Please model this.
Amino acid sequence: MQKQRVLITAAVVTVVFIGLAVVLAVIFRPAATTETGRVARVNVLTDSANTCVQCHRNATAGIVEQYGRSTMAAANVSCEQCHVVAANYPNAIEHEGTYVVNSPTPAICQSCHVAEVAQMAQSRHGLPAYVAVAGSQDLPENHLAQYLSITEGQPSPDKSRHDIAAIEGDVLTRFTCYACHDIGRPNEDGSAGECQKCHLRHEFSLEQARRPETCNACHIGPDHPQFEIYQESPHGIAYATMGDTWNWDVDPGMATVKDFPAPTCATCHFGGLGAAGLTHDVGDRLTWFLFMPTSVRRPGWAENMVRMQTVCLECHNLNFINEFYTAADAATERVNEWTDEGEALRAEMAAAGVLTAEPFDQPIDFAIFNLWHHWGRTAKFGVWMQGPDYSQWHGAYELLNDLAEVREYYNEHMPGAEPPAVEEPAPTPAPSS
Ligand code: HEC
Ligand code: HEC
Ligand code: HEC
Ligand code: HEC
Ligand code: HEC
Ligand code: HEC
Ligand code: HEC
Ligand code: HEC
Model:
């Protein structure tokens, strides 16, 4: 199965866009490089005659101050271009003789950033993030069709509302699940997601988006500790100790290893370093669905692997990277064997009525869940992103601990039953899919 990517149009648009951005940057960029190499921006709206700006200097001084320092303000993008809409636009508010929205959506950014919007929409940062919590059953027709067309979205085992979200209820999920998963929420104007989850308004600063702390808003904690893993990796140590000297404002697509001597999350998953292109499709370089209980290969994984390795090869040699991928694949398959065993024990106990049909009502339900959801995932993430403490003590070790508990529970509650034989994992298909 080949992914139906919009990469070609995206590439063309990106090239045109970058060309435009470079021209605009030369003409307008109001930046002066300080002695430390950092860019100090001036507020280009100080003398602006724009009516929104003039009044909002008092109404919301912080917004005008921040937006005035952005490269978009310097390129003459006005408040109106993001906020003013037709009277019948979803969520339009009558305001000072016109209509505004208070939270511009990707449909509005799209008028200038076609590629970024399309790429994000086909990734798990789009609708799949929302569906993971809410299920797909209540999506409007156009959003459902969009969701079903996302290749990366398909492996979610269950498209109904998530059990834990249902137990917690709306009073909590606004502050829990959705605080992160709204990154892909369906918007009433037909678009999906919130760009401002990573591009904090109103500076829309590249440095802010590129720093790993931005991803830390969500990629943290027991079930997806990518930030903690990064912190203990050699890449993260380079960032923590040397990052202040890096060239955070380099134009998109122009970064070299001189700007970034070690990679950040954005370098590996978004950024154009050297020969690697820019993308907002975070699935574009991944070979496994690591978050799944038992990981399977992604559609088009071999091409994805080449794209990720293009990043690695800016700094490492091919033998090093090939050896690393072979070892990390084997470690992933090892974790798969254990999560398969956990699932087989669960299935037999459920069939025998030892586990109730009700989710998360028995303490053992939590051990069965943590086994793959926390520790199996964490072990795999640690392997792939160089975090040994997470592969080991917060990963494989905790997994074995829960597996021992589940096995004991099985032996106690299924007297005389033979523990299920776990099948050998299917061999990885040849890299042609
Ligand atoms: C005469 C002053 C004035 C002008 C002109 C003005 N605003 Fe406002 N605007 C305000 C004030 C005051 C508020 C805050 C209202 C509040 O706190 O409830 C506001 C609120 C807003 C909000 C939030 C609306 C909400 O209900 O959440 C947006 C968005 C906004 N303005 C955008 C604009 C844009 C874009 C323009 C130019 C087309 C503009 N404003 C022109 C004074 C103004
Ligand atoms: C590039 C698009 C863009 C431009 C240009 C822009 N905004 Fe916004 N604005 C946003 C986004 C996105 C949000 C929503 C932030 C959120 O949901 O957290 C927002 C939110 C707001 C809000 C409501 C949120 C709050 O904290 O009160 C106001 C008021 C506002 N903008 C005013 C302005 C004014 C005034 C200007 C011009 C000086 C401006 N914006 C320029 C994208 C933009
Ligand atoms: C009217 C056109 C227009 C709209 C609408 C627009 N942008 Fe932009 N944006 C631009 C231009 C032009 C630049 C290039 C500025 C530069 O690099 O000089 C830019 C640059 C950016 C950058 C990179 C900033 C940098 O320093 O290089 C980000 C991030 C961004 N936009 C996000 C958004 C988001 C998010 C929205 C919607 C909420 C949005 N834009 C809406 C025109 C627009
Ligand atoms: C701190 C932010 C955060 C919170 C809070 C959060 N999640 Fe997540 N969730 C994530 C991230 C990040 C991933 C991606 C994991 C990966 O791919 O490594 C994820 C992955 C998932 C997945 C697996 C992906 C899929 O599409 O099947 C499900 C299901 C899920 N979350 C459901 C929930 C539910 C339900 C809640 C609330 C009970 C919740 N999450 C709370 C950040 C969060
Ligand atoms: C998950 C975080 C994240 C989200 C969500 C996100 N971006 Fe970005 N964006 C980034 C990062 C990281 C970069 C810097 C890439 C690099 O190193 O050049 C970036 C860069 C950009 C740029 C500069 C040019 C480019 O393509 O690199 C634009 C324009 C932009 N984003 C627009 C958007 C728009 C529009 C949306 C919403 C549809 C959006 N972004 C959503 C993380 C995000
Ligand atoms: C507001 C929360 C949030 C932020 C900020 C965020 N992410 Fe995510 N990310 C998610 C969620 C939620 C998922 C899982 C979506 C799902 O359930 O399908 C995810 C998934 C991913 C994936 C896996 C995609 C796949 O196909 O499985 C990658 C890679 C990723 N994010 C990278 C990043 C990077 C890099 C940044 C910072 C530049 C970032 N994210 C910022 C919430 C976030
Ligand atoms: C050196 C490059 C590199 C850096 C830096 C990096 N990652 Fe990764 N990331 C990878 C690789 C490689 C994989 C596994 C790819 C595969 O499946 O083939 C991965 C996997 C992931 C996944 C798992 C997606 C899934 O299948 O569940 C997420 C989410 C993620 N990274 C987010 C992040 C975040 C957030 C950061 C920063 C805190 C980060 N990454 C830093 C290379 C990197
Ligand atoms: C911008 C340069 C750069 C990129 C890109 C990069 N790395 Fe690294 N990597 C480094 C540096 C610097 C070190 C630290 C070497 C040392 O320990 O002296 C390192 C170390 C490593 C290590 C050694 C870990 C250990 O514990 O000793 C591994 C494995 C690794 N990188 C894998 C990758 C993979 C896989 C990719 C691509 C997904 C990648 N790197 C991309 C610069 C980079």
Notes: Residues 318-351 form the longest helix (34 residues).
